Amino acid sequence: MRNDKLFFCVFLFFFFCLELSRGQNNGKTQVNVGVVTDVGTSYSEAAMLCINMSLADFYSSRPQFQTRLVVNVGDSKKDVVGAAIAALDLIKNKQVKAILGPWTSMQAHFLIEIGQKSQVPIVSFSATSPFLNSLRSPYFFRATYEDSSQVEAIKAFIKLFGWREVVPVYIDNTFGEGIMPRLTDALQDINVRIPYRSVIALNATDTEISVELLKMMNRPTRVFIVHMYSSLASRFFIKAKEIGLMKAGYVWILTNGVTDVLSSINETGIEAMDGVLGIKTYIQKSQDLDKFRSRWRKIFPRLELTVYGLWAYDATTVLEIAIEEAGTNNMTFSNVVDTGRNVSELEALGLSQFGPKLLETLSKVQFRGLGGDFRFVNGQLQPSVFEIVNMIGTGEKTIGFWTEGNGLVKQLDQQPSSMSALSTWQDHLKQKIWPGEADSVPKGWEIPTNGKKLHIGVPKKIGFTDLVKVTRDPITNSTVVTGFCIDFFEVVIQAMPYDVSYEFIPFEKPDGKAAGSYNEMVHQVYLGRYDAIVGDTTVLANRRSKERQC
Ligand SMILES: *[C@@H]1O[C@H](CO)[C@@H](O)[C@H](O)[C@H]1NC(C)=O
Ligand SMILES: *[C@@H]1O[C@H](CO)[C@@H](O)[C@H](O)[C@H]1NC(C)=O
Ligand SMILES: *[C@@H]1O[C@H](CO)[C@@H](O)[C@H](O)[C@H]1NC(C)=O
Ligand SMILES: *[C@@H]1O[C@H](CO)[C@@H](O)[C@H](O)[C@H]1NC(C)=O
Ligand SMILES: *[C@@H]1O[C@H](CO)[C@@H](O)[C@H](O)[C@H]1NC(C)=O
Ligand SMILES: *[C@@H]1O[C@H](CO)[C@@H](O)[C@H](O)[C@H]1NC(C)=O
């Protein structure tokens, strides 16, 4: 009996020691990976927390795994060169086998070159510019959606409402311009014209933004696609509202660059965006995601969890899986020191021998992440659904979805057969509001009048007034113009593809008598007193020469 117990205790002790020794050196192969990020910013902090949570969650549920990632942080100092220096330092001094990050597409440019030269995969969860594809580096992976993937959703939208002209508004950098090639092509497909582009500097002053907005106001196109960072978008919309571009008649469409991070915009900014439409990254609902969100709210109640946090978590998971699968051989760099020759910093890095194998396993990993099914296709994630949102008051409302198979639908489970060829926009989207609470779909085009209305002359007549009749409202003393010609004019204006605001001005003397003959009235158009005339006028040769085009 006693002996048995003793034996059991000894056995337990032995086992405990074994576990302890394992705990100390872990019995695991530690693999250095780098994170290049803008240390000190709130978005970077949230992403770091997600990376750390992934490491903890992943290995605690997979104790049998032989590798353990060790994260080394490099500060890019919110700078392109800073990011490159941080990456070089991580590769040289920590021999990292992969790098998570960097934050922006501009920073990614350099890093992709460095990754390619040294065979260190770069896995970014936030650099979304399509331009990065043109570098064609197999060592670059994008654990996020590339910006131009939402272009088809924008196109479907513009087609649905039948707008003929669209003006893109974007930041003049790699991020902003990245979407343009595919957007231009997509709009060309449906014969939608881009009359001009509005390009805004990231550090534009409020005055510069106002000048650009006034330019937009003075041109007829009223449909704008805004692709910029949320910080700039916030200032932009506050100014737009101030100047009067958030009124009825205007259409604003935001890309997911803004709608995915609305939480970073303050209430003033959000309210200025009332009536704006947006394309938003769709994240499939799941129990894991719900659990993660509620955990996050408990631990970091004040820190917002954005879609980039979810991508950061999933990007870390993909590295954990791929590195385990790549095994523990070949963990060195070749040609590291080459003292004899004068070599560049880049050449001095050498080649990660682990690189080719890691590349292979990274490309094959598939799992169910927080952001949905995770699988690299041509080195990046491929979305098949986007959410359509409408900014209302102090928040956003989902008014539909865009799916690869069915286009715009109100609900994801909506049957495409319930939408006939003659369907209206209400069959595809839920009720939405437009800027200025316009009660009909804006026409997207307006004769810019700077708030002035077109002056339409009407004849003051005595006798036969079925065609035009001018009276004065006895209470308000305002002019009331009625008659067949007026009804006809109003129907024509309604049918025009753009909005026109106008007022009727009777051709009369202060005493209310007609101010002259028809010929004299038509002459007023030539003189510029009227922009046009409505009435039972006959177009005669001598009159026509005097008509002005408006
Ligand atoms: C995440 O983990 C790294 C490495 O262990 C550590 O340096 C960093 O402070 C952690 N970051 C946060 C935000 O907890
Ligand atoms: C914005 O930045 C550019 C270059 O980075 C500089 O030339 C320009 O003067 C800056 N503009 C303002 C208003 O700060
Ligand atoms: C909200 O943000 C805008 C632009 O970013 C800024 O100008 C404004 O002062 C902010 N308002 C408040 C109340 O913080
Ligand atoms: C390396 O290049 C620098 C300047 O490019 C030169 O001054 C130096 O002498 C070179 N060293 C060797 C060992 O060639
Ligand atoms: C190490 O990597 C090189 C190529 O980088 C490969 O040729 C070699 O077979 C690898 N060695 C092992 C043991 O995997
Ligand atoms: C009514 O309006 C006309 C023109 O706008 C003006 O000449 C006239 O004095 C006004 N009459 C009254 C009673 O206000």
UniProtKB/TrEMBL annotation:
Keywords: Membrane, Signal, Transmembrane, Transmembrane helix
Residue ranges of every copy of the Receptor ligand binding region domain listed in the record: 48-393
GO cellular component: membrane
UniProt keyword Transcription regulation, yes or no: no
Listed PANTHER family: OS06G0188250 PROTEIN, OS09G0428600 PROTEIN
Claim: Membrane is one of the keywords in the record: yes
InterPro entries: ANF_lig-bd_rcpt (IPR001828), GABAb_receptor_plant_PBP1 (IPR044440), Ionotropic_Glu_rcpt (IPR015683), Peripla_BP_I (IPR028082)
Protein name, per record: Receptor ligand binding region domain-containing protein
Assembly notes: May form heteromers.
Signal sequence range: 1-23
Location within or outside the cell: Membrane
Function description: Glutamate-gated receptor that probably acts as a non-selective cation channel. May be involved in light-signal transduction and calcium homeostasis via the regulation of calcium influx into cells.
